[in-house]
UniProtKB/TrEMBL annotation:
HAMAP family the UniProt entry points to: PurU
Stated name of the protein: Formyltetrahydrofolate deformylase
Protein's gene: purU
Segments forming domain ACT: 27-104
CDD domains for the chain: FMT_core_Formyl-FH4-Hydrolase_C
Keyword Hydrolase: yes
Keywords: Hydrolase, One-carbon metabolism, Purine biosynthesis
Source organism (scientific name): Haloechinothrix salitolerans
Length: 306
């Protein structure tokens, strides 16, 4: 979503001011079969436009002939003016190497929707990080199957949509959710949203729905991982942020973290300790997604972290 200038300052749709210098910064994400001189060709192309490379990370799956992934963040004066020519030049170089690529102006601020159920800790973390400017993204809306987050969310100027969900009304509820989301957001974050999304819903946002699972996947998938962990007598609990697919809790993992527990801790204490992990793991995953640092590769991810 392109930013707009308000009294000379670049702002996002939510009215968040865009830091100076961002207007001429872009990210280039490239993938394909690894071949010699790919990097020099791509960076040579950028240098012809006077680009200054701020950050560059690459990964090859093999020493030779495997798959290649590259993320370059760069600054170039008058980016918007030279963009069409730059895209033409990149198309030429990419085609010569059979590469896939996408160019993302950083000022094209991504629009996120947050979906939440009863638990508020993950939602609050995202709202706090957004307010503090940690996320250069817009929160276009919050959708919940519970009414009680509305006042806090709307006090921040963010629309709140309460859409109850029961087993009998699930499909109709998803119709309403998709009507609100389609064309209005770039990605969706499930901040402890406790309803399984239908394949129809997931297909609308391929690898653009991020869920925080309150367990260390692949262990303890499903709705009650802390109870299952307690019954198993684990010594570590964790949280997992992953892209959502139609198969429950089986999508590409973006980030995980763990903490130690022992026999003294009941399910309530596991939940309390786990909630701190959920907040930080989800925020990290959202931040990396917003910065185009996550590339899905099969059923895993390549994360070019900062
Ligand atoms: N298609 C997907 N939808 C969702 C995923 C996913 O990976 N794929 N993750 C869940 C989040 N989650 C665990 O992290 C989870 C949430 C809810 C359930 C569940 O069994 N829900 C029941 C209803 C429970 C209730 O009403 O309280 C259900 O939907 O029938 C399991 C796992 C979010 N969605």
């Amino acid at each position: 979503m392109m930013s707009t200038a308000v009294s000379g300052k670049l702002c996002s749709a939510n009215g968040k001011s865009i830091p100076d210098g961002i207007a001429d910064t872009a990210r280039l994400i490239v993938s394909g079969i690894d071949r010699p001189r790919i990097v020099s060709n791509i960076t040579g192309c950028l240098s012809q436009f006077g680009a200054n490379i701020i950050e560059s990370q690459q990964f090859s799956t093999e020493a030779h002939g495997g798959l290649f992934f590259l993320r370059i963040e760069f600054h170039v004066s008058c980016l918007r003016m030279i963009l069409p020519e730059l895209e033409l030049a990149l198309t030429y170089h990419a085609n010569a190497y059979g590469l896939s690529w996408r160019l993302v102006p950083v000022a094209d601020v991504k629009r996120m929707a947050i979906m939440v159920s009863r638990e508020e800790h993950a939602l609050n973390e995202l709202l706090m990080r957004w307010r503090s400017g940690d996320f250069l993204a817009d929160i276009s809306m919050v959708i919940s199957n519970h009414p009680h987050h509305g006042k806090a969310v709307e006090s921040l100027g963010i629309p709140y949509h309460y859409i109850p969900v029961t087993p009998d009304t699930k499909s109709a509820a998803e119709d309403k959710q998709l009507e609100l989301l389609s064309g209005n957001v770039d990605f969706v974050v499930l901040a402890r949203y406790m309803q399984i999304l239908s394949p129809r819903f997931v297909e609308r946002f391929p690898y653009r729905i991020i869920n925080i699972h309150h367990g260390l996947l692949p262990a303890f998938a499903g709705a009650n991982p802390y109870r299952a962990a307690k019954e198993r007598g684990v010594k570590l609990i964790g949280a997992t942020a992953h892209y959502v697919t139609s198969e429950l809790d089986a999508g590409p993992i973006i980030e995980q973290d763990v903490t130690r527990v022992d026999h003294r801790h009941g399910v309530a204490e596991l939940r309390r300790r786990g909630s701190h992990l959920e907040r930080s793991v989800l925020a990290t995953a959202v931040s990396w997604h917003v910065q185009d640092r996550v590339i899905v590769h099969g059923n895993s991810t390549i994360t070019f972290t900062n």
